[in-house]
Design a protein that fits this description.
- By secondary structure, the chain is an all-alpha fold.
- Helix content is 63%, strand content 0%.
- The chain has two domains: 51 residues, no CATH class; 32 residues.
Amino acid sequence: MKTAREIEKVSLNEGVIEEMVAKVRAIAKGPHGELFFKMVDTFLEQTEPEIFTEEDLADIEEGLEDIRQGRFLTLEEYRQGKRL
């Protein structure tokens, strides 16, 4: 499990950084930009040295895979009481 300080020390080559910046810009300019910024702020507000546990990371990856596979509800569907 990596701490925030260990993550900061990761050395990335310039191409990887540029690619990440381009992705962040695309998300920020898109329809979910505000949500993205709120999520980033939440991550940065973590006061514990460990940002995510192994279980957290596994849950996040599982959620991302669900989204990739189309297993999700829109906010409107959720508000209407629909469930997966």
